[in-house]
Specification:
Elements lengths: L7 H8 L3 H9 L6 E2 L5 E2 L4 H13 L4 H8 L10 H32 L27 H9 L1
Antiparallel strand pairs: 1-2
Helix pairs in contact: 1-2
Length: about 150
């Protein structure tokens, strides 16, 4: 039985991506295509699952480099097996748990950090007069320290 190949337009339509996004993911090495005699891109149907995985992972906040590292172990045109999906999800699970914890901390501390109008500046985790914390690192140094202490 011959494999049916999809045009870039069909892939875009079936995944809900713009054609330029399909080209972008290919340029980043996340998916691959074949070229026909007219040098037009053609994709195997298995690429639809990979693009769905990429879209979903990005929505969860997983960077493209990490998606490529994990999903790149499998050929983008092949059918993803149950075992492959389990391997991918197990590699992301710890990272997602860390993000969930960070988001919950942000949610719980947001009310007292942003526009709080409090008078307890000595205890404010956003306070950094004269950029004294620059020696300890970049970003939200106090909030990061609190996260490590929990």
């Amino acid at each position: 039985m011959a494999t049916r190949y999809l045009t870039v337009g069909e892939v875009a339509r079936r995944t809900g991506l713009a054609v330029s996004a399909v080209h972008f993911y290919e340029s980043k090495g996340l998916i691959t295509s074949l070229r026909n005699a007219s040098n037009h891109r053609r994709y195997t149907p298995g690429v639809l699952r990979y693009l769905s995985l990429i879209k979903y992972a990005q929505r969860l906040g997983i960077p493209l480099d990490e998606i490529r590292e994990v999903a790149g172990q499998y050929r983008s045109g092949d059918k993803v097996t149950k075992e492959a999906w389990q391997a991918i999800s197990s590699q992301w699970k710890a990272r997602l748990d860390e993000r969930i914890d960070a988001l919950q901390r942000l949610r719980d501390e947001l009310d007292c950090c942003i526009g709080c109008g409090c008078l307890s500046l000595a205890d404010c985790p956003a306070l950094n007069p004269d950029d004294e914390l620059a020696e300890q690192g970049t970003g939200a140094v106090v909030l990061e320290r609190r996260a490590r202490e929990k």
